[in-house]
Amino acid sequence: MRKTRLIFGIFALSLASTSCLRQKTQARAFTPPPVRTRPVPVQDASPTLPDVPEIAADPASILPPPLPENPDLTTEIPDAPKRVARRPVPPVTTPKPAAQGPVTPEAPTPPRLAQMYTPEELRENTRVLDECLDRVNRNLLIVEGKNLTPEQKQDAERIRTFRKQAEQAREQDLPTAVSLAKRADLLAKDLLERLP
């Protein structure tokens, strides 16, 4: 009961102390701004130009050159160049495989899309990959000498898997290899910190 009275009292005081209740606003009449007068542009008297002088035209520069009256249409057109005979390409013969059951031909692998990198990016990615793999190898050597719990053994195996995948992906997809090596590095660092 006492809290509710206190709350209502604070509420009443806050309403009484607001400036909205005490302030009476009077309507103000709108007075438009004064009209600006624009200066009248002064018209410049345009200068008069002298008349264009007449220049006599040279008829030789206007007329086309004279053509021959009777062109000689009996001249021979040269023959087209002769085709060069190509040497026949000998057919390629493949040795027949030994007769063993039906052989299915392998489908050609489609070309892979890959991102193009500048030489600097390639060097940087290779450097990062080598550094991560070196740290992983050093940390795994330290871990192998310790007595590990089953969970820690599982983490060490996961690190080896990431390391192997990074080494395999190095030639085909360098950014993926760097990402895998970084994961292995982080896991190895975490495992080392948890060891006694």
Would you kindly provide a written description of the structure presented here, covering whatever features stand out?
This protein is mainly α and about 200 residues long. It has helices at about 1-15, 20, 60, 120-145, 150-170, 175-195. Helix 4 (about 120-145) runs antiparallel to helix 5, helix 4 (about 120-145) runs parallel beside helix 6 and helix 5 (about 150-170) packs antiparallel against helix 6 (about 175-195).
Describe what is shown at a glance.
With 196 residues, this protein is mostly helical. 46% of the residues lie in helices and 0% in strands.
Mean pLDDT, to the nearest integer, reads 79
CATH architecture of one domain: Up-down Bundle
Identify low-pLDDT runs.
Answer: none
The computed structural class is: mainly alpha
Largest sheet: none
How many β strands by DSSP? Answer: 0
Q: Beta-strand percentage?
A: under 5%
Number of helices: 6
Order of helices and strands: HHHHHH
Question: Which helices and strands appear, and what pairs or packs with what?
Answer:
Blueprint: H1 2-16, H2 19-22, H3 59-62, H4 119-144, H5 150-169, H6 174-194
Helix pairs in contact: 4-5, 4-6, 5-6
List descriptors.
single chain, about 200 residues, mainly alpha, Substrate Binding Domain Of Dnak, Chain:A, Domain 2, 6 helices, about 45% helix, about 0% strand, flat
